[in-house]
Amino acid sequence: MTLELAGAAHPMARDPERAGWWTSTAPAADGDRYGFALDGGPVLPDPRARRLPDGPGGLAAVVDHDTYVWEHGVPARLRLRGGVLYELHVGTFTPEGTLDAAAARLGELAGLGVTHVELMPLCPFPGTRGWGYDGVAPWAVHEPYGGPPALKRFVDAAHGLGLGVVLDVVHNHLGPSGNHLPSFGPYFTGAHGGAATPWGPAVNLDGPGSDEVRAYFKSSALAWLRDYRIDGLRLDAVHALVDTRALTFLEELSAAVDALSVEQGRRHFLIAESDRCDPRTTAPRASGGLGLHAQWNDDFHHALHTALTGESQGYYADFARAPMAALAKTLTRVFFHDGTYSTFRGRHHGRPVDRARTSAHRFLGYAQTHDQVGNRAAGDRLSATLSPGLLACAATLVLTGPAVPMLFMGEEWGAGTPWMYFTDHTDPELAEAVRQGRRREFAAYGWTEEDVPDPQDPATRDRSVLDRDERGRDPHKRLLAWHRELIALRRTLPDLTDPDLSAVRVAYDEEARWLVFRRGDVRVAVNLGPKPAEIALGSNGRDRVLAAWERTEAPGRDGLLRLPAESAAVFTDG
């Protein structure tokens, strides 16, 4: 094995103290190119490359993290409790599609009132355009986005505005193109009956050699938090991590992140994406849980989506039978599937959340995400089919609900631009396979080939870029103001960040399509129906409206709240 550094070859020797490792020492400076030649083969980039200036197929480059001079410290009190997250894709947040261009817009998000920016994956992938979930170098930053220096400038700018930064990382698979990791060791497995993820071979977390594999991904995660001052990580599809060991990788990772928090004197956190509906995902390790700090709650999304749209295909079917009841359940009990039968899965699914012992801040609530928009055939947002009033209702339920709210970029003004699935695979066969696979997937739902956007067409990405000019005209302008108002209420009213799930009270009418929930002295009402609603709430004479989408009076002496069609109101009786 040979280290090829700056045009010179350096022989490597086995490490006598660490099986499977080869070492060599050579002087290097920031930016020097290098790679490894295995058994006389071609020079491959370092699996731990901090930078790949020419993409996954090129040589690695040395990164000296000490050369960057940070301008801002890390803001205090960057916690999930009281937080509002904003999911952002660097490549479509601005026309330029770079971290520097996105950083220049961070003031808008600080003005909106969000507390954390959640970046979709930044690891290098072939080509220029993509979602980032096909990354192949989990220690590096995609060069077309600006590479490592640009990420540091982005985080620095965010912290200067008091914003936290969360990074979406993928541990369950690597991309199919440009992936050299198998050449360096048993990083993938065909065990478990040939188990693999829907996106590629399964990572070896429990087979022979898996100690080093786990260390590889754990160290990568810690590097983002340490070297780039990232505040938290979102872990993609943890349900796809095949791991039969008694001490799971996720427990190891959460323990390591907690230890780093103590070491650095600031709080880091992990947010899981999981479809298991299992409260043990976020339960403390001492209580037999995995110790992750929060998780996305797709059940809340599905209930809200069906209540708003009436859609009932696929996994929406169970929620669509009684969407207002499903919404009420997810507001109070978190999971809709908490041991109930799931027709989509063909079996019972989930486990109840102990509301008396589990904080509401363990869960994220949202109306839209990159998945729930981009995985639709045309990438259509809720704004494509819903009225401004219903969009305002969705915002109200997300931003005043018990879960930590999250918005998907552009949602705050009801963006009219779609957000579609797009790729830039450089392998022609892979590009065609992705194109045809996308068409086959949606043919089952009646979409013709012509109606499914070509993911490889550059125009598909271009059409997905946000149009900020929309913000200056209605209804976008009004929706943006509504989001600001609701976020301000959440920041100023302690009842709206109360973590006590058992204290949330909900009433609803399935047929009339209204729902009211109470959190302390604050009551929130939404009317999704096409007609005004009269809701018997009672009154203590001290009720006052804090915010309303349409003109709404507090309940009068008769105790009735008269709520206009497709509207929402927040009021207090305290």
UniProtKB/TrEMBL annotation:
Substrate binds at residues 234-239, 298-302, 370-375. This is Malto-oligosyltrehalose trehalohydrolase. SMART domains: Aamy. The keyword Phosphoprotein does not apply. GO terms for cellular component: cytoplasm. GO terms for molecular function: 4-alpha-D-(1->4)-alpha-D-glucanotrehalose trehalohydrolase activity. Residues 459-470 have a biased composition (Basic and acidic residues). InterPro entries: DUF3459 (IPR022567), GH (IPR017853), GH13_cat_dom (IPR006047), Ig-like_fold (IPR013783), Ig_E-set (IPR014756), Trehalose_TreZ (IPR012768), Trehalose_TreZ_E-set_sf (IPR044901). It comes from Streptomyces laurentii.
